[in-house]
Amino acid sequence: MAVISRGFFGRKREENPELPPGQYLTEDFPVLSAGPTPVVDLADWTFSIQTESGEVHAWNWEQLNALPQEDIHTDIHCVTRWSKLGTTWSGVSLDTLFAGVDTTNAYVMVHSYGGYTTNMPLADLMDGKAWIATSFEGEPLDPEHGGPARLLVPHLYFWKSAKWVHGLRMVATDDPGFWEQNGYHIYGDPWLEQRYW
Predict the structure, then answer these.
(1) In whole angstroms, what is the distance from residue 21 CA to residue 42 CA?
(2) In the chain, what are the domain boundaries?
């Protein structure tokens, strides 16, 4: 069952060159989840990248936070039509995490605590396009927004920025994840309004 906060319905679309087509500007941060918020103890938290060979690269919470941190200033766009401009996050670049990972597969399946999945091309995680975010607006990431850590892929609709991220699995084909199996677009470019199939 989806969890929806106020702010998802009844807003007027806006004509603003900073907004993708069909989006409206919000000042708050609405919450939409595919299920209940998982409780993740930092002592048990891990993030991993599994390659097609079965090799696993893994980090616990302390190891992740010991890696170089980046501040990210970006706009975010939800498929439910809200956009939030000028947000500030911090986290670890996927470029850093993929250093030393040997893969020839072109796609990734993202896995979250709680069972959520989403798919995307590996190219959309590299070259400064994606992070494992651990803070928002200078504060630790709230559980309702994906804390302790979420994937942040701001150039795609926000369902691709998986909350409570647990790991990435390299795959050979772009098979659909949770929302993609339920009618959402396989890619999700907000500027092309790739909302649904």
Answers:
(1) 39
(2) 21-34+45-192
